[in-house]
């Protein structure tokens, strides 16, 4: 067994297709993370049979298989709706006042569960 150190390493080269039309030659049994964390950072390596699921970083590339390097999609921004109670909102605003030392903002909560009357401008009407 001691004489078999190099028998598990394959000297065979594998072609990895790049989405821009190029081709990269790598040794067989190379780990995915060596490619995606090295020269092709920002890319996912996929097997041709499963183009929508990136290979795990510790997976090894097998001979006689086809692999493709695809650029990672930018993460899209998402809108998040946060629901808080009136008391939680009061605490958040008060804490923000203390943390940021905002002296011009004085939170006043006068909501009593009933809709307030329609807003009216405070300026006088100009006669024409």
Radius of gyration: 31 Å
- Number of DSSP E strands: 4
The portion of residues assigned to helices is: 10-25%
| Secondary structural class | alpha+beta
CATH architecture name of the domain at 13-71: Roll
What kind of sheet is the major sheet? 4 strands, mixed
Give the CA-CA distance, first to last residue. Answer: 104 Å
In sequence order, what are the helices and strands, one letter per element? EEHEEH
Strand order of the largest sheet: 2-1-4-3
List the defining traits of the structure above.
single chain; 128 residues; alpha+beta; Ubiquitin-like (UB roll); 4 strands; elongated; PADRE_dom
Give the structure's gist in a few sentences.
The protein has 128 residues and is of the alpha+beta class. The chain is 16% helix and 16% strand. It has a domain at 13-71: Ubiquitin-like (UB roll) (Roll), CATH 3.10.20.
């Amino acid at each position: 067994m001691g004489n078999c150190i190099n028998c598990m390493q394959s000297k065979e080269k594998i072609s990895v297709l790049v989405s821009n039309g190029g081709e990269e030659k790598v040794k067989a049994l190379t780990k995915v993370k060596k490619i995606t964390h090295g020269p092709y950072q920002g890319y996912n390596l996929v097997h041709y049979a499963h183009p929508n699921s990136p290979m795990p970083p510790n997976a090894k590339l097998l001979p006689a298989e086809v692999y493709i390097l695809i650029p990672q999609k930018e993460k899209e921004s998402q809108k998040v709706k946060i629901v808080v109670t009136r008391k939680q909102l009061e605490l958040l605003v008060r804490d923000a006042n203390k943390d940021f030392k905002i002296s011009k903002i004085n939170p006043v909560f006068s909501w009593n569960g009933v809709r307030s009357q329609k807003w009216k401008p405070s300026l006088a009407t100009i006669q024409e």
